[in-house]
Amino acid sequence: MDNTALSALLAATMIAGTPILFAAAGELLAERSGILNLGVEGMMLVGAAFGFICTLSTGNHWLGLLAALAGGGFMASIHGLITITLRGNQVVSGLALTIFGSGLSGFLGKSYQGAPMLFKFESLHVPVLGNIPFLGPVLFRHDPMVYLCILMAAAMWYLLYKTRWGLTIRSVGENPQAADAVGINVGRVRFLCTIVGGMMAGLGGAYISLVYAPTWQENMTAGRGWIAVALVIFALWNPSRAIIGAYLFGGIEALTFRLQTMGIHISSFFLAMFPYIATIVVLVLVTIRRRQDAGAPEALGLAYDREER
Amino acid sequence: MLKLKLIRRENESTMARLIVPVLSIIMAFGCGWIFLALSGYLPAVVFAKMFNGALGSPYAISETIVKAVPLMVAGLAISLAFRMKLWNIGAEGQIYMGAFAASGMALALGNGSPYVIIPIMMIAAFAAGALWGLVPGLLKAYWQVNETIITLMLNYVAIYWVDYLVFGPWKDPNSMGFPLTPIFSPAAQLPTWGDSRVHLGLLLAGIIAIVFYLVVQYTRWGYEVRVMGESSQAAKYAGMNVAKNIMLVMMVSGGIAGIAGMIEVAGITHRLQQGVSPGYGYTAIIVAWLARLNPFAIIIVAFLFGALLVGGFAVQIVGVSFSITQILQGTVLFFLLAGEIFLRYRLVLAREEAV
Prior knowledge:
The structure holds 2 protein chains of 2 kinds. By secondary structure, chain A is mainly α. Chain A has helices at 3-32, 40-58, 61-85, 90-108, 135-139, 144-162, 164-174, 176-181, 186-212, 224-234, 239-262, 268-289. Chain A has a single domain, classed as ABC transporter involved in vitamin B12 uptake, BtuC. Chain A is built from 12 helices and no strands. In chain A, α1 (3-32) packs antiparallel against α11, α3 runs antiparallel to α9 and α7 packs across α9 (186-212). Chain B has a two-stranded antiparallel sheet with strand order 1-2. Chain B is globular and about 75 Å long. At the A-B interface, α3, α4, α10 and α12 of A face α6, α11 and α13 of B.
């Protein structure tokens, strides 16, 4: 493989990793607060549809991103209402959200099927750095969303591990009874994390319809929401590991499209399995070794009821 | 100050158990009605079309049954695991593995007696689905690895495995590039009812439901499964082997879902193809939940959801997207999950205590 091909592959990796990282960072926040939301795929699709339709009708892609935030947040609030306020089953609610989101986005996007995105994000060309051979095109010539997404994931890490809020969020996810006892409003923290998580999934979806594709296709997220769910576990609920994982999984996605041209003789289907198998292996190893610092939040997936102590 | 408060019930309310699912369906269709009206359609026309397309003629009903059969079988499979509070959301992958194994047998055995080939396909499908359930079951039983995540991840492994086969080694050379295997010999196809596509799988679904009911209700093992679902601690103290039963339940659950895959390839497609299950494994979770895990209710709810699928195709004629079906499915489940709080809690108006 020559340098140009490798540089193109790595640049494509940055793009492919972006929607996954957006969604995974959001899901990570929700899971840290104890809410498992398997509706990521649905929230991404609604974000993608809202973002696409709003951008096309207003001509402003920033407004489109706002619409995507609203769409993802709206979807997540349904999950919050059911699982937090009404203490419903998180697994089933998340699946319902995915089915509903797939339907809603398909319904709204019907007349846009295959329409090209006319308003595109301009790629930045970072002065000086962008001119470095090889590294320039790989790292410094992308659209602003690519950098925004890394910033958000890094901010998420800072929030969770270096601030009081982060401590509050983690305590709610680990031991809601104790958090409640010290006066934290468990429901409110969880609701907030779930909604912010949904908004980030919406952004991830919009990135696909506005920048990556850039068009509208029914079910265009094509399973990336599930990859994001896998990534949260693969990253062991740590945003900094999620950044690395997102580009690893993104790199695999970029590679599947280039296998033939690069003369590599593995079936792309086996490559596509990799994120899921890797996640299984990581989850199994961590659970067996019971690493305290790296496991799932203790109260993940459990509804909190004050009277049940 | 008066405030609404939730008070925990001693026992699940029997009234609520019946009313909540029925009301959920009605309210979801009410929401669909408003949604369609807001989108500029005539809801009455759309729903009439949907009803006619799904149930309006013998042909329509036969197509609804065709779609309902895999939902029945997969719904039964899921409900067994759910009874033990094992969140097997891997029916989709187990269906694919069953379809894969059954197809492998059909293609390898070629022509022969259907009385030999069909049972072999069924056993192979059960074994492949059971294996796909055993992996998360084993991990759960011995190391408490979260079965929800493992079953979910395994779905994609199974789907890509089938994709690999139908795009690669098993592809029909005469398929003009389509991802399909060659068609099975007649001996590997399930007999159908008259001219319709309704096949033997329907009878099989009924048998599974009856056996399921008898086993869960009247055998010692069924009793153990129910106890372990209530409390694994209590089960342990009573001397039940929880680990063994987790593996067994996940195996049987996966195996039955595998049969759903076999039924689909042997009864409908008569070959393995890409997307052999368009999400039956996920829809079946809604079915099982809506039926509150009761085997006979699963048969009825699966029929309703089959109707929703077929009706969704029918409304495309009046320009409405098939997506309306998914919107309705999701909304039914939202209302159901939200309404379930009334099974466990009572809503009362209480005086707010002064703090």
